[in-house]
Amino acid sequence: MKDANCIFCKIANGEIPSQTLYEDETFRVILDLGPATKGHALILPKEHHANLYELPETTAGEVMKLAKKMASMMTERLGCEGFNLVQNNGDLAGQTVFHFHMHLIPRYRADGQKIGWKPQEVSQAELEAVKDQICQE
Ligand code: AMP
Ligand code: ZN
After folding, report:
1. Does 3 sit in the ligand 1 pocket, CB within 6 Å?
2. Ligand 2: distance of its center to the CA of 113 in Å?
3. Closest ligand 1 atom, CA of 101?
């Protein structure tokens, strides 16, 4: 399934050119046009799925296998010293292109980037309440 108005559908299926690092029947891996660091890449499924919720389970598993393969290869070739996998779902979570993608972000000493969050204080009772909310039948 493709979406005629989706830029990542067009890139993944080769209708719009991209700097492609890897391609197979299911995926294309491209360099991000607004990289966080040198080598920042995106895994794009060729089929259109807006986000993780819509991604078929099989594809989700294949994405992680490919992320591992790409991270190992890119770390060796680029000489980076760390690696972030980032995957945003929904505009509140920072998603700007609504075709599932996984960010592959090589990290270098003093690369000036910070990917993280501010830890909040929480009590054991609050943790238990959240656990109960998530784990209800
Ligand atoms: P997200 O915020 O998780 O939806 O990430 C979207 C990413 O796509 C951003 O890092 C953009 O820099 C990148 N991006 C947007 N358009 C293009 C494009 N035409 N080619 C390559 N990367 C793109
Ligand atoms: Zn798409």
Report:
1. no
2. 28
3. 3
Number of helices (H), then strands (E), in the chain: 3, 5
User: Does residue 111 have its Cβ closer than 6 Å to ligand 1?
Assistant: no
Terminal CA-to-CA distance of the chain, rounded, Å?
A: 33
The residue whose CA is least distant from atom 11 of ligand 1 is 34
Contact, 113 vs 36, CB < 8 A?
yes
- Of all atoms in ligand 1, which is nearest to the CA of residue 88? 3
Residue 111, classified by CB atoms within 10 Å of its CB into exposed (0-12), middle (13-18) or buried (19+), is middle
Closest-CA residue to 13 (of 40, 47, 49) = 47
pLDDT, one tens digit for every residue, the chain (137 residues):
788 899 999 999 999 999 999 999 999 999 999 999 999 999 999 999 999 999 999 999 999 999 999 999 999 999 999 999 999 999 999 999 999 999 999 999 999 999 999 999 999 999 999 999 999 97
Give the whole-angstrom CA distance, residue 81 versus residue 95. Answer: 26
